[in-house]
Write a structure and sequence with these properties.
two-stranded antiparallel ribbon, 2 strands, mainly alpha
Length: about 130
């Protein structure tokens, strides 16, 4: 019985919630590498030999492209040393990723639209301040 409930939940979640597109965690990762990573992810479920081959390929591509990108950044620093701190911050800075893309409203519905999510947060903050004042 639990299996069928789980499957029903998964199916309805796929219908209601938006599919988030995978994005590169590093600025130098190209779409070609992301596509290969997706192939690797799918191959992991089917064929481990193919997965290992694709994994080696992805790692090799990442190493080559990453090294080329870092060398380019170093060359830019050598050419224009005035902006060295700004360039280092750009290279080292980790992008903060928001964890949630949907919020549950008071009535139990799941909100996906950014405008609606902002309205819910505004309401929540107002309630917090009103409770503290009284």
């Amino acid at each position: 019985m639990e299996y069928f409930q789980q499957q029903a939940l998964v199916i309805s979640a796929k219908e209601v919630l938006p599919r988030m597109r995978r994005t590169a965690k590093q600025s130098w990762i190209k779409q070609k590498i992301l596509d290969r990573m997706e192939e690797r992810r799918k191959a992991k479920l089917m064929d481990m030999d193919l997965y290992r081959k694709l994994n080696k390929e992805v790692r090799k591509m990442c190493k080559q492209v990453g090294e080329k990108w870092f060398n380019k950044q170093c060359d830019e620093i050598k050419v224009n040393p005035r902006n060295i701190h700004q360039k280092i911050k750009y290279i080292v800075y980790k992008k903060k990723i928001a964890s949630g893309h949907c919020v549950k409203a008071k009535n139990g519905s799941v909100l996906i639209d950014q405008k609606n999510i902002q309205d819910i947060w505004d309401e929540y903050i107002e309630e917090l301040y009103n409770d503290n004042l009284t």
